[in-house]
Predict the 3D structure of the following.
Amino acid sequence: MGVLFAIASAALYGTGDFFGGMAAKRLSIWVVVPVSGLFGLLTACAATAVLSPGVPLRSDLELGALAGIVGGGAIACLYRGLAIARMSVVAPITAVVAAVVPVVYGIAIGERPALGAFIGIVLALVAVAVVSASAQEDVSGKPEPASAGLALALAAGLGFGLLYVILARTSHAMWPLVAARTTSTLAVGTLAIVTRRFGSPRPALGSTAMSGVFDMFGNVLYLLALRHTLVAIAAVVTSLYPASTVLLARLVLRERLTSVQWMGVACAGAGIVLIGVSS
């Protein structure tokens, strides 16, 4: 069950990232992040009312606030990277970094996945690495600079990896998501207003809203996954989210999938099967 929640989380994360990247192509991240955060906050409140009614733990709120600071920075870096470079390259690089951090954390706290699950984790990591090593040309055929979006992708991956770890330390109720999104939205929104970088989201309001909603539903499903499986497994499977980002980029933006990327998809599928069977 935990793996199924993680797979669904990955699909929603990837879809949210695609919409966020699309919005960031038309709007400043100083508009996209706080506005999408507001829609994410509304989604988190609804999920909490249904799944975790009652009084929140103080530790959940504190960890949630920390997650908001880390996650807000990670989302800003990712959306900016998706806006200035190929989505089919930036998303997988972010994912492989995000997957490594919780695996190391899980091993450090004593988690020991079964051999089949461990092999599946390795295959999943190989999958996102292989996908990121794909075409070095953009849609128009011009060579893409190797450094385009790379620093942003690495920073976003580190932030998301830490976010996975922070959420794993909560009670797995939904309250940390409310605290996280409140913190990040207020922090980025206030900074955007003070520096006069905030503007109207109307040119891409639909994409901005969808990015916040899908991203938050991905967070909800990740917490549900943690209730049923190890953090190393949940985080790695969730980190396969670039599959939906790349697919949407192919369908909507006509970004091409190479044979190498298809090999990565095959590795991802094999990894999920092994993790699921061994969990």
